[in-house]
Amino acid sequence: MTEFKIDEEYTIIKEKDTGFWHYSQNGVMMPKKAEKAFKYYSLNINNLDSLMNSYFHLSNPASFNDPFDCNINLLDSAEDIQTINEMTTVKRNNCSNLGVVSMTEIVDNHVMWAHYTDNYHGFAIEFKGTEVTVIPSADQTAGGTFVKVIYPKKLVKVKKEYPFAIQYMLTTKLKHWEYENEWRFITTLGPKKDRILHYDPEKVKGLYIGHQMIDNKPSAYRLILSIRARVFPNVPVYVVYPHPNKLELYFEKVLPK
Fold first, then answer.
1. Residues with Cβ < 8 Å from 244, sequence gap 6 or more?
2. Distance spanning both ends of the chain, measured CA to CA
3. What gap in Å lies between CA 225 and CA 237, rounded to an integer?
4. How many CB atoms lie within 10 A of CB 157?
5. In angstroms, rounded to a whole number, what is the distance separating the alpha carbons of residues 159 and 13?
6. Is the Cα torsion angle 173, 175, 176, 177 positive or negative in sign?
7. pTM for the structure as a whole
8. Which of 230, 236, 227, 229 is closest to 255 using CA atoms?
9. How far apart are CA 105 and CA 184, in angstroms?
10. Which of 78, 123, 136, 151 could covalently link to 178 via disulfide, CB atoms 3.0 to 4.6 Å apart?
11. Is-contact 206 236, C-beta < 8 A?
């Protein structure tokens, strides 16, 4: 087998040269790298710590807001899959041996700012998509892959024996999530289940701050600017507002002036 048709829009195709499986959308191979990648954060102590110490938290899909995301029912005979830990809860996406970092290609979507930054109280960081450089530790057993999520109209099952089965399970979401334009960094955890994955702070290209943080949490805003001065002092900082005259977001550059 060299290809598998998921629906009328998506096909997964095996590359002749590498043997890797990649998605095709409407007959065109999907990009392997994003031009830009953004990570949204709500405002809490854990996310401020991750900003100060330049790391991603590797999420267990069980914590995702969509219970159908990474759902092992996408695979036939899912109970027999050895690469996924035995489930101990009713959740069908509890992959405790895997870590996922969710990012997106877009920073100007008002729904994303409302949902993922707690209504503009949080922030986002920007990477050049080809430079999401992570520093795996001994507790991550693989360097991981950075891959684009697909959004078929209907979720279909694939056989667990297929070589792309796990990739498909981890990168497939329902069509109504398509606005997120998501990319995922996926890695396998080591025996210690360490979920901290450091990135190179020199690869950060921008810092975006929701306007509600300035209005309602000014001490947090000052703290983030202090972190920026210490960790990536040359990175531009933007405050994100609803545009005063248009139905779109406005990005005011505040640093450097």
1. 250
2. 56
3. 9
4. 14
5. 16
6. positive
7. 0.88
8. 236
9. 11
10. 151
11. yes
The neighbour count for residue 15, using CB atoms within 10 Å, is 11
**CA–CA distance from 35 to each of 17, 19, 62, 128, 190 (Å)?**
24, 24, 29, 6, 30
Separate counts of helices (H) and strands (E) for the chain: 5, 17
> What DSSP letter does each residue of 160-220 carry, written as one string?
TTSTTHHHHHHTB--GGGGGG-EEEEEEEB-TT---EEEE-GGGEEEEEEEHHHHHH-HHH
Tokens of 137: 């530790």
pLDDT at 148: 94
Provide the token pair at 68: 């159908």
pLDDT for residue 257 is more than 70: yes
The token pair that represents 251 in the structure block: 């990005």
Q: With contact defined as beta carbons under 8 Å apart, do 205 and 128 qualify?
A: yes
- Whole-angstrom distance, CA of residue 201 vs CA of residue 112: 24
Q: Do residues 133 and 199 make contact, with C-beta atoms less than 8 angstroms apart?
A: yes
Q: Where are the alpha helices (DSSP H) in the chain?
A: 45-52, 110-116, 165-170, 211-216, 218-231
Distances (CA, A) of 152 to 6, 31, 213, 225: 8, 17, 36, 40
Instruction: Tell me what the mean pLDDT of segment 180-203 comes to.
Output: 88
Strand segments, DSSP code E, in 45-166 are 55-57, 75-76, 98-104, 123-128, 134-135, 145-148, 158-159
pLDDT band of residue 156 (cuts 50, 70, 90) is confident
Q: Which of 63-72, 75-84, 218-227 has the lowest mean pLDDT?
A: 75-84
What integer pLDDT is reported at residue 67 of this predicted model?
76
Provide mean pLDDT across the span 212-230.
97
